[in-house]
Amino acid sequence: MANSSIVNSWSDHNCPISKESISMSTAAPQLIPAAISARKNAYAPYSKFLVGAAVITEDGTIFTGTNVENASYGLTICAERIAAGAAVAAGHRKIMAVAVATTGAASPCGACRQFLAEFGGAMLVYLVDADKPDRIVETSLDKLLPAQFDLKI
Which of 53, 65, 70, 111 is close enough to 75 for a disulfide, judged by CB 3.0 to 4.6 Å? Predict the structure, then answer.
């Protein structure tokens, strides 16, 4: 991660990043390579858009996921949800950060943002350009999804 640079403007990505939110945390050096590595296993025969994700839980455990497409597009599962689901299946309920690796450092879709919010509404989010992995955008889920739906009673 020594050669990484954090980008503070993704105007072409519609990502609400401010200079105040740009800083690398201790999770990034573990999460980013895990997300890039997971991306290699993506199953995307239709879109060819490969996505890898990695989440880190409260105790420092890392879980990864890849997008898995289906001929019935609505059944496609995003990498972020697979990684978070693996964490939940292992008994974790709090996610501290997520890294997403794609061509162009795409931001998680709306469904993934809401899904992730269930396990950490203000978690750190690292957007990684898999083709230029030294370009990383750090933001937080509450900035990407400011009006999160919540049923806590």
Answer: 70
Instruction: Tell me the C-alpha distance between 92 and 8, whole Å.
Output: 31
pTM across the whole model: 0.85
Cα–Cα distance between 27 and 35 in angstroms, integer?
A: 12
Which amino acids are annotated catalytic? Answer: 80
Mean pLDDT of 88-109: 97
Cβ neighbours for 136, distance < 8 A, ≥ 6 positions apart: 4, 5, 6, 7, 24, 28, 32, 105, 126, 127, 128, 129
- Residue closest to 79 by CA, chosen among 54, 104, 103: 54
pLDDT at site 21: 35
The one-letter amino acid code at 68 reads: V
